[in-house]
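Morning F.,

Quick status update on the modeling queue. The single chain you submitted on Monday has been processed. Sequence for confirmation:
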Amino acid sequence: CFDELLLLHQTALEENGAPFRYVILVGDLCMKGPDSEKVVRYVREKNWLAVRGNHDNAVLGAALGDSSRRSKKKYKWVMNGENGIANNNQVTLSDDDVMWLAELPYTLTIPAALLQADSNESSEVCLDTTIVHAGLVPGVELKDQSIETMVTIREVDPIYKHKENFNGKGTLLRYTRHGAEMPLAKNEIRGDRPVLWASAWQGPNQVVFGHDARRGLQLFDTKWATGLDTGAVYGKQLTGIILPDRRLVQVDALKEHSPVG
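Structure tokens below.
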């Protein structure tokens, strides 16, 4: 949603009262609204930062020759540049754009010291803050998180210590990504219901993420994780957060760009 992105940035600037040290996007620059080419080009040329989302990976696959994606209508725009076809906004995905997308990291971590330098004296102590598209499995070190997790996770399964009289409230051992084929030890049992990964996240870093438009804005009392996807492509809102004060900024979508689903 290119126009909404520009509107959100301008609104955030007015709210902040000063330019930002960095602007960071939580991924899915592509395939979430019209003018994906313009979003990529604008963010790249502005030297803004971003992490990779699952839709960005899909577009990269099409750009780099994945025949199964290139055959689908929704990816035809990806090939306009190589085919010499300009769309009505006269922007096509260039080789430089594709290279830039391919070099995006899956996470970015803002050091606490940098956030603290920008904080008000009265604000709470800042923590390292990690930006990721979808999320992380609680209790797993960042270096051990899988790419699949970082771009697709929404829920996790709690794993408990097995007891003969297990009633769903035994000793919690760990979490696994919901839907992942993870073998259990003999003394382990999977909980009856998955939970939102962000509701179970207890650090050590605070996390800001996107991806889960169905649930919308995700705020938790612990403040360990904040989910910003509020469904702009579906005609709802585009949301940002100003760090370190954690002020939310939101603009309404200009139109419904795609039906839900």
